[in-house]
Amino acid sequence: MEFKNKEIAIIYEKTREKDTHTGEKIDGYIEYCYDKAEELAWRIEERINYLSKDKTPEEIIMTETEGITKGVWNDGMTGYQYGLSILLLATYWKYGEYIKKWHNTQMGNPDAKGVINPSVLTLHMKDK
Q1: N or C: which end of the chain has fewer CB within 10 A?
Q2: First to last CA, the chain
Q3: How far is the C-alpha of 16 from the C-alpha of 11, rounded, in Å?
Q4: In this structure, is residue 22 part of a structural domain?
Q5: Of 44, 13, 18, 42, residue with least CA distance to 30
Q6: Number of domains in the chain
Q7: How far is 113 from 9, CA to CA, in rounded Å?
Q8: Residue 120 domain-assigned?
Q9: Which is nearest to 96 in space by CA: 24, 40, 32?
């Protein structure tokens, strides 16, 4: 996974090892989020390397990520784990802004400032 810069990489590694609030080692539930974020980043980076002659990284992420996620997140990931994985990528990954935009587009608000919580349920009433 390519990080935004060296300082960000150091912070990421520290948060991957220990909870920054408690100082305790992260548990398996959270570690899974890091693993899945890294796997998705790796697969997207492969795709970027393959398609970079014809498309920008942003174009690749916006058009290819949905298909890639089906191979990464197909093992019972919870909404919270999905959201945390996206937040990790948006915060630390070299292409974080693009993955945030892709995710927020999927959630119906591509211009949202932060990462939209995927566990939020929005109901639309049918007009009578």
Answers
A1: C
A2: 50
A3: 9
A4: yes
A5: 18
A6: 1
A7: 23
A8: no
A9: 40
Quick one: pLDDT at residue 41? 98
Query: For residue 17, is it within any domain?
Result: yes
Domain extent at residue 24:
6-106
Dist. CA 12–CA 91, nearest whole Å: 9
Dihedral sign from CA coordinates of 71, 47, 50, 38: negative
pLDDT at 127 over 80: no
Q: Does the residue 35 lie in any domain?
A: yes
Q: What is the pLDDT of residues 75-89, one digit of tens each?
A: 888 889 999 999 999
